[in-house]
């Protein structure tokens, strides 16, 4: 039995092999094509439920199976799986493109009597009509054929971009000596020493994975070692990599992707891809986005300039660095932070063991959103992966299952970097069975793993940034899993405007700065003692350390993204645009050979094209939403359960069933305001 064709309620991740991909995709595409032909017959009723019971059921089977393959490709990549995935990708892309542009299906949807639909279905229907237009359903002849070809080419190029980034990252290793590792935290030394020993080698095996790269940049006293890693990191997948690494160069992929996106926009009647990208988003025009970013940059710049001046002064006076280089700044920043606030990231890290943090995260979610989170059982792809269920307690009955999620926390070879939430399946009142399908999510991070030393197993230690990342992704997960919407296409995160989808994730980050939350999720790795209040106060004082520079950094990426997809000519080199944006925005300039665009997966392989501004846009929404909790907190600073319930009902449970602005106003009683964000980031007057 092919596990990708199984009718089991959960994917059989432990059984899926590369050889299963082709036959499963072939079978599921045949079923989906048959369903499409059935519902587009002249005699088939133009009725929402009738179409859904045939077509949506078939396409969901395809989507779940292909989603499992894509997920394994991201977290457990092998040459065999990659080959199977890439072989099937054109067929899958062709089907979804053809489905979204099928004029017969478009006509059927236009013929549906919307008066017979409920509110959720009407919103899904509005989105569907819009998506048909954006999917090329009104194109004819050669324009339609070219549009389909563009989609297939883009899918291939995005996949190649992602592969190059992963391969370039995995290909790097450097075996550092004892003296080079001076200053590096003990847990990183242990992990890198074990990595070298596992290969029968001496020294410390360093990689460009975040749990290794970042601590070395922050703590290694050896500037030459930092320079070596920095250069390797910022030239990954580019023409500036070493001779061996240039085979992963993404330059041509980027230029081809940009050209195809502009051509797609022109085919659909839009002046540029940026304008096309905003059609299903909250922001109205690229000009509105650019104005928002430039306004925020102007507000942040004085704070960023002070941040840099403080760094330069400290580097010169305390570290004897007259002319710090780009690879020195993380080190200088960490030393300044330690001097100014009398603590180090490494000191804090000892209190955040992964099991304790996870327990604390679950506790705040359970308290705030009136649910219970329990371990559950499922087939998994790696021994570190856990599976959980979210339930709503009921007075005299069995708890109600709300949703389930896989948690994959650790970095490893073959797993792409970063952190993300993805859906396995969506909440849906199934039209074929009448049964309610509960949602399931993937929550993926790239933290350090726990270690075994002299036969003793030590839990993984998280930095406070790691803790924030975990809360962020769990916020996405809650948005997906706590929905009460029954219509698949607007349930959970489905149908939510892209520039509002970060609201629940960024909202959850705020709890990482609340003493009454944090104290219950800390225990020193050796003593078990909770985080001391005095250390937390130092962390809080340092919360907005360099927030000006960090804000400008995000604005730099966001402006580059939007300008790249509006004013930039894809035929021209994109590096001058990036350099110009840096000149206009950044207070700290990278070296001329830096190539961060070449691994900018968010916009070239991750769905954020002409949408990276969403992070800053949603920060305004999330900060203002969290301000409601601050305004209603009790004397101990604990959140008001009524506010939590209102937030859950207005934002999380509503999903994409109405415009995000309506949901925000239902919670806050007004449109969002910028002042809460500026206050939270220490940039208010």
Note down, in words, how this protein is organized:
This protein has 685 residues and is of the alpha+beta class. Among the domains are: 3-167, Neurolysin, domain 3 (Orthogonal Bundle), CATH 1.10.1370; 172-248, no CATH class; 354-476 and 508-541, Neurolysin, domain 3. The protein contains 26 helices and eleven strands. The protein has helices spanning 18-39, 48-75, 79-100, 103-110, 119-134, 141-171, 186-197, 210-219, 223-234, 251-267, 273-277, 286-319, 329-341, 345-349, 354-369, 464-481, 503-509, 515-518, 533-541, 547-564, 575-585, 601-604, 614-632, 641-652, 660-668, 675-680, and strands at residues 174-176, 204-206, 372-375, 386-392, 400-410, 420-425, 428-429, 436-437, 440-447, 451-453, 456-458. The longest helix has 34 residues, at 286-319. The termini are far apart. The mean pLDDT is 96.
Characterize the biggest β-sheet. Answer: 5 strands, mixed
Helix content: 40-55%
Computed CA radius of gyration, to the nearest angstrom:
25 Å
Mean pLDDT across every amino acid position: 96
- Low-confidence blocks of residues: none
Q: What is the CATH class designation of the domain at 3-167?
A: Mainly Alpha
- The geometry reads as globular
β-strand number: 11
Q: In CATH terms, what is the fold-level topology of the domain at 3-167?
A: Neurolysin, domain 3
**Would you tell me the structural class of the helices and strands?**
alpha+beta
Separation of termini?
65 Å
Features of this protein?
685 residues, alpha+beta, Neurolysin, domain 3, 8% strand
